[in-house]
Amino acid sequence: MSRSLVQPVGQKRLTNVAVVRLKKRGMRFEIACYKNKVLSWRSGVEKDLDEVLQSQTVYSNVSKGVLAKSKDMIAAFGTDDHSQICLEILKKGELQVAGKERESQLSSQFRDIATIVMEKTINPETQRPYTISMIERLMHEIHFAVDGNSSSKKQALEVIHELEKNFPIKKAPMRLRLTVSENHLTSVMEKLNSWNANTVSKDGSENQLSVVCEMDPGYFRDCDAFLRNLQGKLEILAVSVHVEGDAHVDHYDDHAEILSRHPKESIDTVLQLSEKMQKQTISAGNGNAGEEVKQNKCSTCNAVVGDAKQYRDHFKSDWHKHNLRRKTRQLPPLTAEECMADLEVGDLKSDLKDYSF
Known about the structure:
Layout: E1 17-24, E2 27-34, H1 38-42, E3 59-61, E4 66-67, H2 70-77, H3 82-92, E5 94-95, H4 99-120, E6 121-122, H5 132-141, H6 152-166, E7 170-171, E8 174-181, H7 185-194, E9 198-205, E10 208-215, H8 220-229, E11 233-238, H9 249-259, H10 261-285, E12 297-298, E13 303-304, H11 308-316, H12 318-328, H13 336-352
Antiparallel strand pairs: 1-2, 1-5, 3-4, 6-7, 8-10, 8-11, 9-10, 12-13
Helix pairs in contact: 4-5, 4-6, 10-13, 12-13
């Protein structure tokens, strides 16, 4: 009877691995961790290091199983103790993730940033917050890119700063209660006026005055320090103040008009371009063969686009991009006028989708 020969396996197979990589002094060091445990350890949820590391071994290449050399570890870290080096790589190293996983994380963080922006901002005309879909569209228009190594709150504040430059949006005011002695009321009111704060109410009792006001969040620290010097008390009643009550659909349409100004400008340029194309086509038909410019035709839009420069500009236009999306769905191309109407309808639908009347 034949017996199969069983060969011993002399390697430890690492499965379900998340690699943390650190480059130091021109050399690469890696450790093998369990997935979803690295972030838990960094946030302080997971305390047991054995639950995070698959093995307390430092590699130069985890996927190939190549261990780091002792002389390289001493040169980079000053020691060859694997446990200490693993801790430093775990703290400072970069977590390697797959493409789809990274895309999912960035998409989730983008949504978190948009939510924070929505909660902290209002429309200055109506004092109401924008919807999450409108905020996301504005973030796309300013070409915002998520930084996976930065916190969502910090990036949300940067987004608000950029949006204030181009769109009708501002930070929602905070509602505070200031309690000071009666002798300091004049100086407090002068400070509130200099901060453009809106005084809501005043109450007094036994030499103590209480002032409820709404002010820009940027002045909160100055206000806190000012009241500490006066030995007063500061209370936060609301982090962000919005107008209460139901919104009217006409107001909402006005906001959609304001926010869709930039897409309309690009559509207007497309319309001007199409008018130029028509003029060039008519002049060519009248027999001006001597001054005829080479005409380029876009097969996607089924239209003549003029000279080389106009041809390049056409490929960057919303008209061409919209027809490309229709082509992938096997739909016929639209003219510039039809494209403008279709985009307007799509914008209104996306704006009103999350809004309940």
